[in-house]
Write a structure and sequence with these properties.
single chain; Nucleoside Triphosphate Pyrophosphohydrolase; 5 helices; 21% helix; 37% strand; globular
């Protein structure tokens, strides 16, 4: 990267590890440069699911001020891995976004996802380390930071599959805001972060499979 590009970045800006096409470390660069140049980097994803059948899951409502996909529903917890971090270090994002202190040993690895899209920060090329977390903390007991999220929606995995499969489908859920107020909501595919690789269906299937394995 040209020296003048580095000079133009904020010295306090988050630094990310840049990877090559094979996932090997190349360099460390500011987040804005990584996205502006479409460089591969790593992120942490975690889907929170409830322990009993039918499988239910939590989706994060992104901040209205978010640079990418504002106010849409996303995987429960998502965030960039900062320079030098390992995948399980992303557990800090669970504390920041859900207010839960979680032992990394509770995380269940699901997939390694490679995604290329344009998500609001420029060209995005990310490798996501995807995990499940089984947690039954009631919606109203979550401690949400308004600087991180707008709220969380709880719905069944089957409902998620139906709205992904049918653009006209509308499914019931419950949503908590950052003030702890819970209300009934109706969710459709228009409420979700756009799906470019069947990710939503894969997450719902992973929730179904995990709960089926644990209750039999």
């Amino acid at each position: 990267m040209p020296d003048d590009a580095l000079a133009a970045t904020d010295p306090a800006e988050e630094l990310l590890d840049v990877l090559d096409d094979d996932g090997a470390f190349v360099d460390t660069m500011p987040r804005s440069v990584v996205h502006a140049q479409g460089l591969w980097h790593e992120v942490f994803h975690c889907l929170v699911i409830r322990s009993s059948a039918p499988p239910r899951l939590l989706l994060q409502r992104r901040r209205r001020a978010a640079r990418a996909f504002p106010n849409l529903l996303d995987v429960s917890v998502a965030g960039h891995l900062s320079a030098g971090e390992r995948p399980l270090d992303g557990v800090r994002e669970i504390r920041e976004e859900l207010g839960l202190d979680v032992d990394p040993a509770r995380l269940v690895p699901v997939a390694l996802r490679r995604l290329i899209d344009d998500g609001g920060e420029g060209r995005n090329r990310e490798i996501a380390h995807v995990y499940l977390l089984v947690d039954d903390t009631p919606l109203e007991e979550l401690t949400l930071d308004p600087d991180e999220v707008e709220g969380f929606v709880e719905l069944t995995a089957a409902s998620l599959q139906r709205i992904v499969a049918d653009g006209a489908a509308r499914e019931p859920g419950r949503e908590v805001d950052t003030g702890g107020v819970v209300r009934d909501v109706t969710i459709s595919s228009a409420d979700l972060v756009p799906d470019v690789d069947d990710y939503w269906s894969e997450l719902a299937s992973a929730a179904h499979a995990h709960i089926a394995d644990t209750i039999h």
